[in-house]
């Protein structure tokens, strides 16, 4: 590995000298590295997506049924401590479908179906289970996901950036040492950010890597389930380019 690094560095320097001797303008020799950084934090908030699924012979009947169920679920969420400002409709659908009988197949009869989802931002992680139990008891018959996040995401991002920059500087110094060259000033820095989560919701915090899904009978009494939050992670990479000091 050391031999390969040295040959690569010398090739850059030799090319610079040769081109200079021929009278062509050349850019100074450089070295580019990429550093990686990750920061983790315990989540301090969550977003619970719950909904209703209702049917009716007419569109109006399906809409009215869904509205009644959802209003009951939203009211239950407010009683559980969720602010009205933290309840946001994320999906609404009304369509006609042919009724299917699992014993005889399609029946030739039709009904209307309404599906509606609402995202509830819960600012206290300890209340997540209670909110789920409340909305289901209040009328929701689906809970499609939970997204854990942190409110102060900038602090998490800055920690990851600092770690990535430290990694990049260390890599550059090691490569320069092994190649027998001297690092000059930095000429450019580029950042590429990404998260380590499987599920993301950007309505108040920053991502999670946990999902929860369930379907119940509307208005069914339900105790608060036990929820185990996942650690929130943020990752970034930083590409840094240095000039190399010219040999005297």
Can you offer a commentary on this structure?
By secondary structure, the chain is of the alpha+beta class. The chain has 2 domains: 2-41 and 154-195 and 236-244, Protein of unknown function (DUF541), domain 1 (Translation Initiation Factor IF3, 2-Layer Sandwich); 45-145 and 197-230, Alpha-Beta Plaits (2-Layer Sandwich), CATH 3.30.70. It contains 4 helices and 8 strands. The chain has helices at residues 2-21, 59-79, 128-138, 153-179; strands at residues 30-41, 45-56, 87-101, 105-122, 142-149, 183-195, 214-215, 232-244. The protein has a 5-stranded antiparallel sheet. It has a 3-stranded antiparallel sheet with strand order 1-8-6. A hairpin with a 3-residue loop joins β3 (87-101) and β4. α1 (2-21) packs across α4 (153-179) and α2 packs antiparallel against α3 (128-138). The longest helix has 27 residues, at 153-179. It is elongated and about 85 Å long. Residues 1-16 and 197-213 have low confidence and may be disordered.
């Amino acid at each position: 590995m050391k031999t390969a690094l040295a040959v690569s560095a010398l090739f850059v320097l030799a090319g610079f000298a040769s081109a200079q001797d021929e009278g062509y303008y050349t850019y100074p020799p450089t070295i580019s590295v990429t550093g990686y950084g990750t920061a983790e934090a315990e989540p301090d908030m969550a977003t619970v997506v719950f909904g209703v699924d209702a049917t009716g012979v007419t569109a109006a009947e399906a809409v009215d049924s869904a509205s009644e169920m959802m209003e009951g679920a939203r009211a239950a969420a407010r009683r559980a401590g969720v602010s009205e400002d933290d309840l946001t409709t994320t999906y609404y659908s009304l369509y006609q479908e042919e009724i299917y009988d699992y014993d005889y197949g399609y029946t030739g009869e039709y009904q209307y179906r309404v599906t509606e989802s609402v995202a509830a931002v819960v600012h206290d992680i300890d209340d997540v289970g209670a909110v789920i139990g409340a909305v289901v008891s209040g009328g929701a018959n689906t809970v499609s996901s939970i997204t854990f996040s942190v409110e102060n995401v900038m602090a998490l991002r800055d920690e990851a950036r600092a770690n990535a920059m430290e990694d990049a500087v260390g890599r550059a110094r090691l490569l320069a040492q092994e190649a027998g060259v001297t690092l000059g000033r930095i000429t450019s820095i580029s950042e590429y950010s990404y998260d380590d989560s499987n599920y993301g919701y950007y309505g108040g915090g920053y991502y999670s890597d946990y999902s929860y899904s369930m379907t119940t009978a509307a208005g069914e009494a339900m105790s608060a389930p036990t929820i185990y939050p996942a650690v929130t992670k943020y990752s970034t990479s930083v590409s840094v380019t240095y000039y190399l000091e010219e040999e005297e």
